[in-house]
Specification:
Helix content is about 70%, strand content about 0%. It is built from 5 helices and no strands. α1 packs antiparallel against α5. The protein is elongated, with a radius of gyration of 21 Å. The relative contact order is 0.13.
């Protein structure tokens, strides 16, 4: 992520300032994801460690530990998809042979398709969450945990990924318009 000193915001035009707004949002999403993923991993490790000690030392088991860690793991996987997309995962069969602005146009088309998939998961995930809320189901070994909270990860993670993809598309459009350097070094 490129850090721009605070005083340069006032020297920029509206479009550059809008780009910095997108960069600020993606930067905040990055920090949120990092904290969330580290915290959930730490919680899982501690819970599993305590479960092992309780089972083998005290001959007593924590009834909710397996299911709770399973749900946290699901959250880590879905949030990890957005975290992994920071560096734009791609297969360069075609895009590796295209240079300059044509490569950017191809990247934008691919990102628009990717955005469509993210939005599909976001909105269909919201429908699943609403359905689970109406059913009122709770986790079997964690009676205070509503199942819809587990399913909420899909629209949350894919909504955050949609924001990231939109920011990448906007950055590519700015490069095409001549306000940034192309990936191959040309302007």
């Amino acid at each position: 992520m490129i850090e721009i000193p605070e005083n340069t915001y006032t020297k920029m035009g509206k479009k550059e300032n809008d780009m910095n707004g997108l960069k600020k949002i993606t930067h905040r999403i990055n920090k949120l994801e990092e904290v969330f993923l580290v915290a959930t991993l730490a919680v899982c490790v501690v819970v599993i460690f305590v479960q092992v000690i309780a089972r083998y030392v005290f001959n007593n088991s924590i009834s909710w530990s397996e299911e709770g860690c399973k749900y946290l793991f699901v959250w880590m996987i879905w949030m990890g998809t957005d975290f992994a997309a920071r560096d734009h995962l791609c297969i360069e069969i075609i895009s590796g042979r295209v240079k300059g602005k044509a490569k950017l146009v191809l990247d934008i088309v691919v990102k628009l398709m990717w955005l469509g998939i993210c939005l599909f998961f976001t909105f269909n995930g919201l429908e699943v969450v609403q359905s689970m809320m109406q059913r009122g189901k709770v986790a079997s070994s964690i009676p205070w945990l509503k199942v819809w909270v587990v399913y909420l990860v899909m629209p949350v993670s894919q909504g955050m990924l949609s924001i990231r993809v939109i920011a990448q598309i906007a950055e590519d459009i700015m490069k095409i318009m001549g306000r940034g350097q192309l990936a191959d070094g040309s302007v």
